[in-house]
From TrEMBL:
It comes from Arcobacter defluvii. Residues 88-144 form the PAC domain. PANTHER family: CYCLIC DI-GMP PHOSPHODIESTERASE PDED-RELATED (PTHR33121:SF79), CYCLIC DI-GMP PHOSPHODIESTERASE PDEF (PTHR33121). This is PAS sensor-containing diguanylate cyclase/phosphodiesterase. Pfam families: EAL, GGDEF, PAS_4. Residues 168-292 form the GGDEF domain. InterPro entries: Cyclic-di-GMP_PDE-like, EAL_dom, EAL_sf, GGDEF_dom, Nucleotide_cyclase, PAS, PAS-assoc_C, PAS-like_dom_sf.
Amino acid sequence: MNESLQPENFLKLISKYLPDMLWAKDLDGNYLYANDCICKNLLMADPKEVIGKNDVFFAKREREKHPENKQWHTFGELCSNSDLIVLDEMKPMIFEEFGNIKGELVYLEVHKAPLHDETGKLIGTIGSGRDITAQVMLKKKNKKLVYYDQLTSLPNRQKILSDILEKTPTACAIFNIDEFKEVNDFFGTTNADKILQEIADWFLKLDFTTYRIDGDEFAILYYEDIPIDKIRHNIENILSLFEEEMFHIEEEHIHIRFSVGIAKEKENLLTKTDIAVHYAKENKIKIAVYEENANIEKKYKQNIAIATSIREALIDNRIVCYYQPIMNLETLKIDKYETLVRMIDKNNEIIPPLDFLNIAKKTKLYSHITKEVIHQACNTFKNSDKSFSINLSIDDIKDSSTVQEIIKTIIKTKTSNRIIFEILESEGIENYDEVVNFITQIKSIGAKIAIDDFGTGYSNFEHILKLNVDYIKIDGSLIKNIDKNEKHRIIVETIVDFAKKVEAKTVAEFVFDENIFNIVKKIGVNFSQGYYTGKPSSSI
């Protein structure tokens, strides 16, 4: 048998070339044996000089070589004494921050066991060590990705949930930036991100651990049992200090404001704080405190339930169209219809739009409803000679996929010359550029435009001229009292006169009895819509 293949030689080769560190020490911590790996990578010594010396010797020697480098740490300084502990079995232990030859920090996984002689007497310890720096650093990096916001470096929503679970804080406050979407849209995401970083830096000056839990939301936790009034006062002071801050975007100076929600609850702390801050934003108040008896949570649960009902109704084809007749006051014939959306619940009850559309607008469901209405109405009227109108919100107009679906459907059903799109006057004026672009695009294929609810609020004749509308629908609040309120009658007469001059047709909404019908007809309104003319129906 080849001498190099003898078992004892195998052990020497394994010990010499194994990437793991191997050693044996006596009861005083002096080396009895050390393989090449530990000598080269940890002790920075020749194997021949290691025997009989301990870790402290090599630690001091390396420190003297590198007095300026504070990163130097050694195996011996951290765990040489633990070698004297008698272990009943092999147990892994991880020691951190060891110095290697480059003066970098490394992590080792260390296994140790007792060493006995032939008689069974304890004479020292044996050990092995493996460099697990890459694994540890990857774990730390992944933890940072999971628990820390990449833009601001603040702990994130996942981290606050973990801290609430482990540390049981007594209260929480969430700061939501008011109208941050507008800042983002106006100045761009790069500048908006810069502001978020500056806000994060400002929060770091406080004596709180601050979390960034959403795009425009920051949170802090309280751990002392402080009365809610004092917490509110503390938040007021924070807001007062923050309002003095000025943020700079190039040469522009802008102020940032917060809406704040506070909750002091033992269960579902973050959820209830979320509810409070949403309540503050919806009601346009600076600070809202969650109160169990205020039924705020119940309201949000109802909203969630309605959103679920809308989603199920879309899947089950229970979003349906009703059509209300519009009478031509010259011919006294029905030649137009307004499309009105309804939802049928699981009990076959009809749910009016006021009960579900606002919630749909706050979810991603609204565009699906619009597309369903477009599809149903266009297919209903594709074989009819009647005109029909469909209400569009500014959200529909700004949604390119909805606009493309509208164009595709009306071309496919050949209804482009009979469809009228109704746009709320206030939305048209507030989003002028988007609306003008939509009107230009839709009229180029033959569709018409109506301004809805004209006569109140923003009413501006100049905008009607610029928008080039085909119909002006006079707001029902003017029509329903026209027989009793002379001022309302004068306003309606003015609108009708203006419409004739710009060659637009007028529609009177809310005509519910014969008296009102006769008055609007006499004034010269072109079309009448209301219960007197005809109620909405699922068929035409």
